[in-house]
């Protein structure tokens, strides 16, 4: 059976939540009493097709990053800009 946690609890104790999932158990996250997400352990994949998809995705990401212009001047970010506020 899944462990059930609220979104607020998942936010506050995310490291513990990840340890729970790493141990093989699933976690259901609720918001206002309703399930909104399920975090499950990742099944290891050793097949060659999955490895090729990861390689292609990595190459596409690197190509996209190389095509984007660099920021000309460093920017000093404010705390509010770095963190989303609800």
Structure description:
The chain is of the alpha+beta class and 86 residues long. It has a domain at 3-39: YefM-like fold (3-Layer(aba) Sandwich). It is 45% helix and 17% strand. The chain contains four helices and three strands; from the N terminus they run βααββαα. It has helices spanning 7-12, 14-22, 48-67, 79-82, and strands at 3-6, 27-31, 34-39. Strands 1-2-3 form a three-stranded mixed sheet. A hairpin with a 2-residue loop joins strand 2 (27-31) and strand 3 (34-39).
List the main descriptive attributes of the protein structure presented here:
3 strands, alpha+beta, three-stranded mixed β-sheet, 4 helices, 86 residues, single chain, YefM-like fold
Brief write-up:
The protein is an alpha+beta fold and 86 residues long. The protein has a domain at 3-39: YefM-like fold (3-Layer(aba) Sandwich), CATH 3.40.1620.
């Amino acid at each position: 059976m899944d462990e059930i946690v609220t979104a607020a609890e998942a936010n506050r104790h995310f490291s513990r939540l990840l340890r729970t999932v790493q141990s093989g158990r699933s976690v259901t996250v609720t918001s206002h009493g309703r399930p909104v997400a399920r975090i499950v352990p990742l099944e290891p994949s050793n097949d060659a097709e999955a490895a090729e998809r990861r390689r292609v995705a990595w190459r596409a990401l690197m190509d996209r990053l190389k095509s984007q212009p660099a920021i000309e001047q460093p920017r000093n970010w404010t705390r509010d800009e770095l963190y989303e506020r609800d």
